[in-house]
Design goal:
Elements (H helix, E strand, L loop, with lengths): L1 H26 L8 H32 L8 H12 L1 H11 L14 H28 L5 H32 L1
């Protein structure tokens, strides 16, 4: 089941990055709208990843209860990974609500208020923490060689992308506020 989760995370990451790059371009004022297929494929992989991660977390909690030794303090990074993933679910759902467009003929987003900006910045922060804490185990699960150096390089690139995505939301909010 863990190998399935790595596959799901890889697919989700690929579709998410493609969707986020196209979406940031649109939010910055570019003309190309994000392809709905990318967004829904990322959402599908995310839903499956959440389901598998929930089962794996449940199995971990059951094993901890059965053994009588939780070792929570020693496993804080493990729990940070789990909690940050679950923390991203609510802002992800708000993202789906905010940016889902019922009119396929004309691309028009809903009003982008301060609350919606905050929810999207929380999404970037939660995804950032989740992805950055999981880079090293993800790379190991994929069999990548290079250990810390490759994980650090990946974390750096992901951090830059997340900063760009957060800036795109902020720019879009300013554009809404000035209109």
């Amino acid at each position: 089941m863990r190998k399935l989760n790595v596959f799901l995370a890889a697919g989700m990451l690929a579709f998410f990055l493609a969707h986020a790059i196209m979406g940031a371009n649109r939010l910055f004022g570019g003309s190309a709208a994000p392809a709905p297929f990318l967004a829904w494929a990322a959402a599908g992989f995310a839903a499956a990843h959440i389901a598998v991660s929930s089962v794996l977390t449940g199995q971990t909690l059951y094993a901890m209860k059965r053994s009588g030794a939780g070792y929570f303090k020693e496993n804080r990074l493990f729990w940070a990974r789990r909690i940050s993933g679950f923390a991203a679910v609510i802002p992800l759902l708000t993202h789906l609500f905010i940016f889902t467009n019922e009119n396929a003929e004309v691309f028009r987003l809903r009003e982008f208020t301060v609350g919606r900006l905050v929810s999207q910045l929380l999404l970037v922060a939660a995804l950032g923490l989740h992805v950055l804490t999981n880079v090293r185990p993800f790379m190991n699960a994929l069999g990548a060689k290079g250990g810390k150096g490759l994980a650090a390089d990946s974390a750096f690139v992901i951090s830059i992308l997340l900063l760009i995505f957060a800036a795109a939301f902020a720019v879009y909010y300013v554009r809404w506020a000035l209109n």
